[in-house]
Amino acid sequence: MGASYHQFCPVAKAMELLDERWTLLVVRELVSGSERFNELRRGLPRMSPTLLSRRLHQLVRAGVVERRVDGVDVRYVPTAAGRELRPVLEALGAWGVRWIGELGDADLDPKLLLWDMHRHVDHDAVPPGRTVVRFRFRDVPTAQRDWWMVIAGGEADVCDIDPGHAVTVTVTADLRALVQVWMGDLEWAVALRGGAVEVTGPEALRRAAPGWFTLSPFAAVPRP
């Protein structure tokens, strides 16, 4: 728990746990389905492993998360108290969409973008078998420029090293543009027509590729 506000107000008591740096973002990842430490790290790429471990310990101690151990497999699963935070996070996110200004360049992260997108693949729309989408971001440092999303068997994974499979389609984009598409601020068709996003590959697959991904849960939030 963080420092006490010494107030009986329930908001103050809740924030003693939740307003420490990164805590709500850890909860965001947990309620989004990440359970293992490495999964959480992929959704929080700029959080140190030491701090993540500390925050998980605090959440377990507070009864918000349950730590489940099966041999060497350790999972962190939201309790009923943790699951009740989902609508709180959704409301905060919707408020942020409506009232927070334009994102700065430092807020744009290809790793986080693709980790979000991989959880929102429309598996019914993806071709049968293994589908590999290569993402190339024109405007980021070389070390973060190329990514691969491997979709198969109703699951998806993100790789920052070529997995060695044949590429189905390649998405080449400005990072900001693809973030705007994901967040619902820019339509796929507009981005493709303007050249901010380009999809290459066999024609049928190239045309179908945007439909393989649903948008962020916050894409439907009305803008002011």
Explain how this protein is built.
Helices cover 39% and strands 18% of the residues. It has 10 helices and 7 strands. A 5-stranded mixed β-sheet has the order 5-4-3-6-7. Strands 1-2 form a two-stranded antiparallel sheet. A hairpin with a 2-residue loop joins strand 4 and strand 5 (155-159). The two termini are 36 Å apart. The model has no long low-confidence stretch (mean pLDDT 95).
Describe the structure concisely.
This protein is α+β, with helices and mostly antiparallel strands and 224 residues long. The protein has helices at 10-18, 23-31, 37-43, 49-61, 80-83, 86-99, 110-118, 175-183, 188-194, 203-208; strands at residues 65-70, 73-78, 131-137, 146-152, 155-159, 169-173, 197-200.
